[in-house]
Amino acid sequence: MDTHTHSLISSARLRHASHGAVDALASSFAASYAGVVAFLAVADEGSFARAGVRLGIGRSAVSRSVQKLETQLDARLFQRTTRSTSLTREGELFYANCQPGVERIMHAMEDMHELRSGPPKGHLRIHSTTGFGRMIVARLLHDFHLRYPGITLELVLNDMPPDFTTDRIDVSFRDGRLEDSDVVARKLMPMQMVLCASPDYVQAHGMPLDVNDLGRHSCINFRSSSGHIRQWQFRIGETLQKFLPQAHCTFNDIDLIVQSVLKGQGIAQLPSYLVQSLLKERKLLMGLEQFAADDEGCHLCYPSRKQLPDRTRVFIEYAVEHACLMDLPG
Questions:
Q1: Alpha-carbon distances, residue 200 vs 265, 285, 330 (angstroms)
Q2: Contact at 8 Å (CB) between 98 and 36?
Q3: What digits encode the pLDDT tens for the residues 99-131?
Q4: What distance in Å separates the CA atoms of residue 183 and residue 25, rounded to the nearest whole number?
Protein backbone atom coordinates (compact mmCIF):
# COMPACT_ATOMS: atom_id res chain seq x y z
CA MET A 1 0.00 0.00 0.00
CA ASP A 2 1.50 3.30 -1.03
CA THR A 3 1.77 6.28 1.28
CA HIS A 4 -1.04 8.22 -0.42
CA THR A 5 -3.55 5.35 -0.09
CA HIS A 6 -2.60 4.81 3.58
CA SER A 7 -3.16 8.51 4.23
CA LEU A 8 -6.64 8.40 2.63
CA ILE A 9 -7.68 5.37 4.71
CA SER A 10 -6.42 6.98 7.91
CA SER A 11 -8.31 10.17 7.17
CA ALA A 12 -11.52 8.25 6.50
CA ARG A 13 -11.16 6.31 9.76
CA LEU A 14 -10.56 9.57 11.65
CA ARG A 15 -13.66 11.18 10.09
CA HIS A 16 -15.74 8.10 10.96
CA ALA A 17 -14.47 8.09 14.55
CA SER A 18 -15.13 11.81 14.92
CA HIS A 19 -18.62 11.45 13.45
CA GLY A 20 -19.36 8.62 15.87
CA ALA A 21 -18.15 10.70 18.82
CA VAL A 22 -20.36 13.62 17.78
CA ASP A 23 -23.39 11.33 17.41
CA ALA A 24 -22.75 9.83 20.85
CA LEU A 25 -22.37 13.29 22.36
CA ALA A 26 -25.57 14.52 20.71
CA SER A 27 -27.50 11.46 21.86
CA SER A 28 -26.13 11.72 25.37
CA PHE A 29 -26.89 15.43 25.59
CA ALA A 30 -30.45 15.02 24.31
CA ALA A 31 -31.17 12.38 26.95
CA SER A 32 -29.37 14.23 29.70
CA TYR A 33 -30.92 17.62 29.02
CA ALA A 34 -34.50 16.45 29.52
CA GLY A 35 -33.47 14.50 32.61
CA VAL A 36 -31.56 17.39 34.16
CA VAL A 37 -34.41 19.83 33.55
CA ALA A 38 -36.90 17.40 35.10
CA PHE A 39 -34.52 16.68 37.99
CA LEU A 40 -34.06 20.37 38.82
CA ALA A 41 -37.80 21.02 38.67
CA VAL A 42 -38.53 18.14 41.08
CA ALA A 43 -35.75 19.26 43.41
CA ASP A 44 -37.08 22.84 43.47
CA GLU A 45 -40.75 21.88 43.82
CA GLY A 46 -40.30 18.88 46.11
CA SER A 47 -42.84 16.93 44.06
CA PHE A 48 -43.00 15.13 40.71
CA ALA A 49 -46.57 16.35 40.20
CA ARG A 50 -45.73 20.01 40.87
CA ALA A 51 -42.66 19.69 38.66
CA GLY A 52 -44.91 18.46 35.86
CA VAL A 53 -47.20 21.47 36.28
CA ARG A 54 -44.20 23.80 36.24
CA LEU A 55 -42.79 22.21 33.07
CA GLY A 56 -46.16 21.82 31.35
CA ILE A 57 -45.88 18.03 31.05
CA GLY A 58 -47.38 15.06 32.85
CA ARG A 59 -46.08 13.60 36.10
CA SER A 60 -45.24 10.30 34.36
CA ALA A 61 -43.11 12.12 31.75
CA VAL A 62 -41.15 13.82 34.54
CA SER A 63 -40.67 10.50 36.30
CA ARG A 64 -39.43 8.77 33.12
CA SER A 65 -36.93 11.56 32.41
CA VAL A 66 -35.55 11.38 35.95
CA GLN A 67 -35.32 7.58 35.82
CA LYS A 68 -33.38 7.73 32.56
CA LEU A 69 -31.01 10.26 34.13
CA GLU A 70 -30.54 8.06 37.20
CA THR A 71 -29.75 5.10 34.93
CA GLN A 72 -27.28 7.19 32.95
CA LEU A 73 -25.58 8.39 36.14
CA ASP A 74 -25.88 4.99 37.84
CA ALA A 75 -27.07 6.80 40.98
CA ARG A 76 -30.34 7.28 42.83
CA LEU A 77 -31.13 11.00 43.01
CA PHE A 78 -34.38 11.02 45.01
CA GLN A 79 -35.82 9.26 48.03
CA ARG A 80 -39.46 8.66 47.13
CA THR A 81 -42.25 7.84 49.57
CA THR A 82 -46.02 8.12 49.28
CA ARG A 83 -45.87 11.39 51.20
CA SER A 84 -42.64 13.11 50.23
CA THR A 85 -39.82 13.39 47.73
CA SER A 86 -36.36 14.41 48.89
CA LEU A 87 -32.85 14.45 47.47
CA THR A 88 -30.39 11.69 48.29
CA ARG A 89 -26.81 12.64 49.12
CA GLU A 90 -25.90 11.95 45.48
CA GLY A 91 -28.88 14.07 44.42
CA GLU A 92 -27.75 16.97 46.61
CA LEU A 93 -24.25 16.83 45.09
CA PHE A 94 -25.61 16.67 41.53
CA TYR A 95 -28.01 19.56 42.22
CA ALA A 96 -25.21 21.72 43.63
CA ASN A 97 -23.08 21.06 40.53
CA CYS A 98 -25.90 21.66 38.03
CA GLN A 99 -27.52 24.75 39.51
CA PRO A 100 -24.78 27.35 38.78
CA GLY A 101 -24.69 26.31 35.11
CA VAL A 102 -28.46 26.50 34.76
CA GLU A 103 -28.51 29.92 36.45
CA ARG A 104 -25.88 31.20 34.04
CA ILE A 105 -27.83 29.95 31.03
CA MET A 106 -31.04 31.56 32.30
CA HIS A 107 -29.26 34.84 33.03
CA ALA A 108 -27.68 34.81 29.56
CA MET A 109 -31.06 34.28 27.91
CA GLU A 110 -32.69 36.99 30.06
CA ASP A 111 -29.90 39.44 29.30
CA MET A 112 -30.17 38.89 25.55
CA HIS A 113 -33.97 39.19 25.66
CA GLU A 114 -33.81 42.44 27.60
CA LEU A 115 -31.10 43.79 25.31
CA ARG A 116 -33.54 43.73 22.39
CA SER A 117 -36.91 44.24 24.06
CA GLY A 118 -36.98 47.93 25.04
CA PRO A 119 -38.04 49.03 28.55
CA PRO A 120 -37.12 46.72 31.48
CA LYS A 121 -39.58 43.90 32.02
CA GLY A 122 -39.81 40.52 33.72
CA HIS A 123 -40.28 39.25 37.25
CA LEU A 124 -38.34 40.58 40.25
CA ARG A 125 -38.26 38.53 43.46
CA ILE A 126 -37.27 40.66 46.45
CA HIS A 127 -36.40 39.57 49.98
CA SER A 128 -36.49 41.71 53.12
CA THR A 129 -36.61 41.43 56.87
CA THR A 130 -40.19 41.75 58.10
CA GLY A 131 -40.12 45.17 59.79
CA PHE A 132 -38.05 46.86 57.11
CA GLY A 133 -40.11 45.25 54.38
CA ARG A 134 -43.39 46.55 55.77
CA MET A 135 -42.20 50.08 56.49
CA ILE A 136 -39.75 50.79 53.67
CA VAL A 137 -39.70 48.20 50.90
CA ALA A 138 -43.46 47.88 50.36
CA ARG A 139 -43.71 51.62 49.79
CA LEU A 140 -40.70 51.58 47.45
CA LEU A 141 -42.34 48.84 45.39
CA HIS A 142 -45.53 50.82 44.89
CA ASP A 143 -43.72 53.86 43.48
CA PHE A 144 -41.27 51.71 41.51
CA HIS A 145 -44.10 49.84 39.77
CA LEU A 146 -45.65 53.12 38.66
CA ARG A 147 -42.38 53.97 36.92
CA TYR A 148 -41.72 50.47 35.51
CA PRO A 149 -45.11 48.80 34.90
CA GLY A 150 -43.51 46.07 32.79
CA ILE A 151 -41.76 44.61 35.85
CA THR A 152 -43.81 42.30 38.07
CA LEU A 153 -42.81 42.31 41.73
CA GLU A 154 -42.81 39.71 44.48
CA LEU A 155 -41.85 40.60 48.07
CA VAL A 156 -40.76 37.81 50.43
CA LEU A 157 -40.67 38.82 54.12
CA ASN A 158 -38.37 36.63 56.18
CA ASP A 159 -35.87 37.54 58.88
CA MET A 160 -33.60 34.65 57.85
CA PRO A 161 -30.88 35.50 55.28
CA PRO A 162 -31.87 34.15 51.86
CA ASP A 163 -30.06 31.71 49.62
CA PHE A 164 -30.09 33.69 46.37
CA THR A 165 -29.93 30.58 44.18
CA THR A 166 -32.23 28.16 46.00
CA ASP A 167 -34.79 30.83 46.93
CA ARG A 168 -34.53 32.45 43.47
CA ILE A 169 -34.01 35.89 45.06
CA ASP A 170 -32.89 38.78 42.84
CA VAL A 171 -32.23 41.39 45.55
CA SER A 172 -32.34 41.35 49.34
CA PHE A 173 -32.53 44.05 52.00
CA ARG A 174 -30.27 43.04 54.88
CA ASP A 175 -29.28 44.58 58.21
CA GLY A 176 -25.68 44.93 59.33
CA ARG A 177 -22.35 44.11 57.75
CA LEU A 178 -21.95 41.19 55.34
CA GLU A 179 -18.99 38.87 54.84
CA ASP A 180 -20.20 36.95 51.78
CA SER A 181 -17.74 37.56 48.95
CA ASP A 182 -20.28 36.32 46.38
CA VAL A 183 -22.76 39.05 47.30
CA VAL A 184 -22.56 42.76 46.47
CA ALA A 185 -23.84 44.93 49.33
CA ARG A 186 -24.67 48.62 48.86
CA LYS A 187 -25.46 50.67 51.94
CA LEU A 188 -28.99 51.95 51.62
CA MET A 189 -29.62 53.92 54.80
CA PRO A 190 -28.46 54.18 58.44
CA MET A 191 -29.52 51.48 60.85
CA GLN A 192 -28.34 52.13 64.38
CA MET A 193 -29.92 50.23 67.25
CA VAL A 194 -31.30 52.65 69.87
CA LEU A 195 -32.74 52.09 73.33
CA CYS A 196 -36.31 53.40 73.54
CA ALA A 197 -38.99 53.92 76.18
CA SER A 198 -42.29 55.78 76.29
CA PRO A 199 -42.65 59.02 78.30
CA ASP A 200 -45.11 57.26 80.64
CA TYR A 201 -42.60 54.48 81.33
CA VAL A 202 -39.78 56.96 81.99
CA GLN A 203 -42.00 58.94 84.34
CA ALA A 204 -42.86 55.80 86.30
CA HIS A 205 -39.52 53.96 86.25
CA GLY A 206 -36.89 56.38 84.98
CA MET A 207 -34.41 55.67 82.17
CA PRO A 208 -31.45 53.28 82.62
CA LEU A 209 -28.35 55.12 83.78
CA ASP A 210 -25.89 52.62 82.28
CA VAL A 211 -25.82 49.11 80.86
CA ASN A 212 -25.63 47.51 84.31
CA ASP A 213 -28.82 49.37 85.25
CA LEU A 214 -30.85 47.43 82.68
CA GLY A 215 -31.40 44.61 85.17
CA ARG A 216 -33.97 46.60 87.16
CA HIS A 217 -36.06 47.49 84.09
CA SER A 218 -38.79 45.68 82.18
CA CYS A 219 -37.03 44.72 78.95
CA ILE A 220 -38.69 43.48 75.77
CA ASN A 221 -36.72 41.11 73.55
CA PHE A 222 -36.93 40.09 69.90
CA ARG A 223 -36.74 36.43 68.84
CA SER A 224 -35.57 36.03 65.25
CA SER A 225 -36.91 33.44 62.83
CA SER A 226 -33.81 31.34 63.53
CA GLY A 227 -35.10 30.89 67.08
CA HIS A 228 -32.37 32.98 68.73
CA ILE A 229 -33.08 36.02 70.86
CA ARG A 230 -31.34 39.10 69.47
CA GLN A 231 -28.70 40.44 71.83
CA TRP A 232 -28.56 44.14 72.70
CA GLN A 233 -25.35 45.91 71.67
CA PHE A 234 -23.54 48.80 73.32
CA ARG A 235 -20.16 50.44 72.82
CA ILE A 236 -18.32 50.76 76.12
CA GLY A 237 -15.18 52.77 75.47
CA GLU A 238 -13.55 51.09 72.47
CA THR A 239 -15.27 47.75 73.00
CA LEU A 240 -18.52 46.50 71.52
CA GLN A 241 -20.39 44.62 74.24
CA LYS A 242 -23.39 42.37 73.76
CA PHE A 243 -26.01 42.04 76.46
CA LEU A 244 -29.00 39.72 76.75
CA PRO A 245 -31.36 41.15 79.37
CA GLN A 246 -33.90 39.14 81.28
CA ALA A 247 -37.14 40.04 79.56
CA HIS A 248 -40.64 40.06 80.91
CA CYS A 249 -41.90 39.80 77.31
CA THR A 250 -40.47 38.44 74.03
CA PHE A 251 -41.93 38.79 70.51
CA ASN A 252 -40.91 37.44 67.12
CA ASP A 253 -42.51 40.45 65.39
CA ILE A 254 -40.72 43.80 65.59
CA ASP A 255 -43.95 45.79 65.15
CA LEU A 256 -45.41 44.17 68.28
CA ILE A 257 -42.35 45.29 70.22
CA VAL A 258 -42.81 48.88 69.05
CA GLN A 259 -46.47 48.82 70.10
CA SER A 260 -45.59 47.35 73.48
CA VAL A 261 -42.98 50.07 74.10
CA LEU A 262 -45.43 52.79 73.04
CA LYS A 263 -47.93 51.46 75.61
CA GLY A 264 -45.34 51.84 78.36
CA GLN A 265 -44.94 48.11 78.97
CA GLY A 266 -41.15 48.20 78.90
CA ILE A 267 -37.99 49.28 77.11
CA ALA A 268 -36.42 47.80 73.97
CA GLN A 269 -33.51 48.26 71.61
CA LEU A 270 -34.96 49.02 68.17
CA PRO A 271 -33.68 49.92 64.68
CA SER A 272 -33.42 53.68 64.22
CA TYR A 273 -35.34 53.67 60.91
CA LEU A 274 -38.30 52.13 62.71
CA VAL A 275 -38.55 54.72 65.48
CA GLN A 276 -37.08 57.83 63.84
CA SER A 277 -40.34 59.76 63.58
CA LEU A 278 -41.60 58.46 66.94
CA LEU A 279 -38.51 59.91 68.61
CA LYS A 280 -38.91 63.18 66.73
CA GLU A 281 -42.53 63.49 67.87
CA ARG A 282 -41.54 62.60 71.47
CA LYS A 283 -43.84 59.58 71.45
CA LEU A 284 -40.69 57.65 72.38
CA LEU A 285 -37.59 58.73 74.27
CA MET A 286 -34.04 57.53 73.67
CA GLY A 287 -31.78 56.26 76.43
CA LEU A 288 -28.11 55.39 76.83
CA GLU A 289 -27.22 57.42 73.71
CA GLN A 290 -23.61 57.65 74.89
CA PHE A 291 -23.32 53.86 74.64
CA ALA A 292 -25.00 53.45 71.23
CA ALA A 293 -23.20 50.92 69.03
CA ASP A 294 -21.79 51.91 65.65
CA ASP A 295 -24.19 52.26 62.74
CA GLU A 296 -24.02 49.03 60.71
CA GLY A 297 -26.47 50.27 58.10
CA CYS A 298 -29.14 48.58 56.05
CA HIS A 299 -27.81 47.16 52.79
CA LEU A 300 -29.25 46.25 49.44
CA CYS A 301 -27.67 42.96 48.38
CA TYR A 302 -27.55 41.04 45.12
CA PRO A 303 -25.45 38.25 43.60
CA SER A 304 -22.08 39.30 42.27
CA ARG A 305 -22.58 39.40 38.50
CA LYS A 306 -20.97 41.62 35.92
CA GLN A 307 -24.11 41.88 33.80
CA LEU A 308 -27.26 42.32 35.87
CA PRO A 309 -30.65 42.02 34.14
CA ASP A 310 -32.10 45.45 33.40
CA ARG A 311 -35.01 44.90 35.79
CA THR A 312 -32.58 44.25 38.66
CA ARG A 313 -30.28 47.12 37.76
CA VAL A 314 -33.04 49.76 37.58
CA PHE A 315 -34.55 48.56 40.86
CA ILE A 316 -31.19 48.83 42.65
CA GLU A 317 -30.66 52.34 41.31
CA TYR A 318 -34.20 53.36 42.27
CA ALA A 319 -33.95 51.94 45.80
CA VAL A 320 -30.57 53.54 46.53
CA GLU A 321 -31.84 56.90 45.29
CA HIS A 322 -35.23 56.95 47.03
CA ALA A 323 -34.96 55.00 50.32
CA CYS A 324 -33.27 57.77 52.29
CA LEU A 325 -35.67 60.38 50.86
CA MET A 326 -38.74 58.66 52.24
CA ASP A 327 -40.78 60.36 54.93
CA LEU A 328 -40.90 57.57 57.48
CA PRO A 329 -44.27 57.17 59.20
CA GLY A 330 -44.73 57.40 62.92
A1: 9, 10, 18
A2: yes
A3: 777 777 766 666 666 655 667 888 899 999 887
A4: 36
